[in-house]
TrEMBL record:
It is found in: Cytoplasm. This is glutathione transferase. One of its GO terms (molecular function) is glutathione transferase activity. It catalyses: RX + glutathione = an S-substituted glutathione + a halide anion + H(+). It comes from Dicrurus megarhynchus. Keywords: Cytoplasm, Transferase. Homodimer. The gene is Gstt1_0. Residues 1-45 form the GST N-terminal domain.
């Protein structure tokens, strides 16, 4: 999302995080960063397959992801933690219900169109598509909305992703998200509140 920090502005002309600085080269947008790193460091083929059709399937999911999973899953965190933290006011429960309904629809498509009866999104091995999906889907979990509980197919997919990444690394990577509710106890600088509250509200629309 947008960042008001001077450092982010130097790395990304869009003033957004995440952003990558590799020597004199800078890059914004998480998907572009993941693809760049996978190519630069010649990661194992399953992450971004050399097979043209499997690679196209990864690309297809990444394109779909932004307007569907990403359009809904992070909003649970904004509604339950971030916006109340910066505005001092809880949002109506109807707002969360609306987001959860949109997310439920996206998860149904995710299971039926992309996951189907496969172990991972692109067959029998984990790929960048699974990595991008799981990071987004852990955000509702972090604020107490367990989207995996009543979805056995999705739950088993998550377990396979955990095993493929390694459970220790998986939970280390999601530690901040899973403990996001602890932010409710911190004190926010009033000037920062004034700057970020309207930005967060705008992102929720």
């Amino acid at each position: 999302g947008p960042s008001n920090s001077e450092g982010a502005g130097k790395v990304s002309l869009l003033k957004k995080v995440p952003a990558l600085k590799d020597g004199d080269f800078t890059l914004a947008e998480c998907t572009a960063i993941l693809l760049y790193l996978s190519r630069k460091y010649n990661t194992p083929d399953h992450w971004y397959p050399s097979d043209i059709q499997k690679r196209a399937q990864v690309d297809e999911y990444l394109s779909w992801h932004h307007a569907n999973i990403r359009a809904n899953a992070p909003k649970t965190m904004w509604i339950k933690v971030l916006i109340p933290l910066f505005t001092g006011q809880p949002l109506p429960s109807e707002k969360l219900q609306e987001v959860m309904e949109g997310l439920s629809s996206s998860l149904k498509q995710f299971e039926e169109r992309f996951l189907q009866d496969k172990a991972f999104i692109v067959g029998s091995e984990i790929s960048l598509a699974d990595l991008v999906a799981i990071v987004e889907l852990m955000q509702p979990v972090g604020v107490g909305c367990d989207i995996f509980e009543d979805r056995p197919r999705l739950r088993e997919w998550r377990r396979r992703v955990e095993d493929a990444v390694g459970k220790e690394l998986f939970f280390q990577a999601h530690e901040m998200i899973l403990n996001i509710k602890e932010l409710s106890n911190i004190q926010i600088d009033p000037q920062l509140k004034e700057q970020l509250a309207p930005v967060l509200m705008k992102m929720l629309k």
